[in-house]
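Hi V.,

You were right to ask for the full record rather than a summary. Here it is.
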Amino acid sequence: MENFNTSSPEIIKIQKGLRLTKTLLVSSLVAGEKHTGKKTLIKNIFPDAFWIDARDIKEVKRALELHQEVVLTNFDKSLPYNESDFYSKRVVAICDDPTIAKKKESLFSFVYLLPSLKDRPEDVKILTKIFLNEAKEIIGTNIGVNMENLDISQNIKSLKKCIYKKVFSSSLDKNEIKSILYSYLYDVLDEESGYRELIEVFEKPLIEAGLKKYRSQLKLASILKINRNTLRKKIYELGID
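Predicted structure:
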């Protein structure tokens, strides 16, 4: 079973509340944005629960008759349920839309709202370390990786993808990068493409990286061995801030 790793005070509070409901015949709603860890959290606390899609009312009612613990997924997309449907049942419903969750909270004894990763810096730190170690082991590298500008726009999903991409790209040598560029350019090169559009693929990131690293157009022009005015023109043409 996948562990739920957290040091967020808010999440720890939610864990305690859900563990309490294991001893009670009550219904609970766990809501939050997609990829915040709702399913993993519930699996860790209710490992023996029966899982079913809440949109299938007939099967849900059958599951409630046959199982003591039931987890309902897609509850924000479900058809209407009544309070009596969950009476004296141990039900945990999962909702990806917190706004819809508020409209349905009257059906539940307990409602828990999982904050997104942007409000859980402690968990970003923990997950970054886990995903970094995972990626290095899978790719087979111990190279240092720049952990700036992590993507948490889609919570855990985008964070993991971002870190794996960083590790993979950092592990490439010059010839491997050339090979990737060759494959990309071979695929996109056609009658509609032009030199100006394609050169942006490598010229823009080169200049952006150089400006960030040296923080000086004069210094970067010297490094690239080009005229400062030429660099300035390229920065303008490529739309670099």
